[in-house]
Amino acid sequence: MRGSRVAIWLYAGMIGVPILLFVFLVLNFVSAPYSAIGMRASLALAAMGMIALGAVGMDEVFLHRREGAFGEVPKQLVLPAVMRENTKHIPGKGRIITVRIKRFNSTTKNFETETYRAKADELQTVLGALLDIKAYSDPTLSMRYSCRMGICGSCGMEVNGKPVLACETNLLSSLDTNGEIEVQPMHGHPLLKDLVTDFDSFFEKHKSVGANLYRKDEKEQYEAKRIYKQTSGQTEKFLPYSFCIMCGLCLDACPVVNSNPNFVGPQALSQVYRYNADSRDQGAANRLVGIDSIDGVWGCEFAGSCSKVCPKGVDPASAIQLLKGDAMKGFFEKGDVDEE
Ligand code: SF4
Ligand code: FES
Q1: Terminal C-alpha separation, the chain
Q2: Residue 152 sits in a domain of what CATH number?
Q3: I want to staple 252 with a disulfide (CB 3.0 to 4.6 A). Which of 58, 121, 186, 189 is the partner?
Q4: Which residue from 155, 170, 244, 249 has its CB within 8 A of the most atoms of ligand 2, so it is best to mutate?
């Protein structure tokens, strides 16, 4: 703040000094008695102008240093909160509430907490408030979203420390005891910018466990030979695990993922169970070999937090315990085609 106030005075000086200089030069020209005073004053003002320009330049350098363009800045520095408010243009009626956003600065690798005001009626979601903030207060705010209806799994973030889908989270019901909410990116994934996290390793883990139907006959893998009918009992075995939308909330909640980045995680393991339990599949034995390790099922400490936060009720914790049982058997080969 101090730096910017100094800059305002200096910029004012930069405009004022040339005007005064011009006035003295005119006086110097029209009236001889002014010539000695005018000449000295002109030189003095020119020198002041040069100093002012230099100081403004330094101020710019300091501003850039704060943003991390030059040199190192202390790690995990949390900068003081800045209040940004522009609610009068937000359409509609509603209560004005305070939203604290812990933004990740990808240049400095620090978090910066900024405080905004948002309008909230009883239907407003956290994502809706963030989009209002982006539209009316701060266009630089970044978040990921797409469907706005809990289907695409893009808008995962932490609200008051809990991993949630922002588009499914009601704003007024999320207020803390001070009547405010705090939003921050999920810490169980690498950070990209503000509230946006990097899902590359998440998708890699999903891919690595072979989360797709597998048929031993390679041709059949791509061209179905017939209709593979299932009884309702067979479908029920895997159906609850097939609702995963790959939002990554379970990884954010998992204490093991947060201490061992190589742990394949609850999402991928729940999908192993989903395909292993499918009567049309013939790849269970291979998948089990891949996850029979400390970075696979045996890394799970059964905290259960993954199942608690899953917005689709997938219950990865139970899937992992069932896989542990299958791994204990030492042999798991099923998936003979049901000929019904
Ligand atoms: S298991 Fe649930 S929390 Fe985990 S990625 Fe799938 S839908 Fe999201
Ligand atoms: S925007 Fe698609 S799940 Fe939230």
Answers
A1: 75
A2: 3.10.20.30
A3: 186
A4: 155
Q: What is the pLDDT of residues 110-142, one digit of tens each?
A: 999 999 999 999 999 999 999 999 998 999 999
What domain range includes position 181? Answer: 79-197
Which ligand places an atom closest to the C-alpha of 245? Answer: 1
Question: Are both 51 and 112 inside the same structural domain?
Answer: no
Contact 156 CB / ligand 1 (< 6 Å): no
- With beta carbons less than 8 A apart as the criterion, state whether 314 and 248 touch: no
Query: According to the model, what pLDDT value does residue 94 have?
Result: 83
Answer yes or no: are the C-beta atoms of 326 and 274 closer than 8 Å.
Answer: no
Q: For residues 242 and 34, give the distance between their C-alpha atoms in angstroms, rounded to a whole number.
A: 90
Ligand 1 centroid distance, CA of 70 (Å): 40
Residues within a 6 A CB radius of ligand 2: 145-148, 150-155, 165, 167
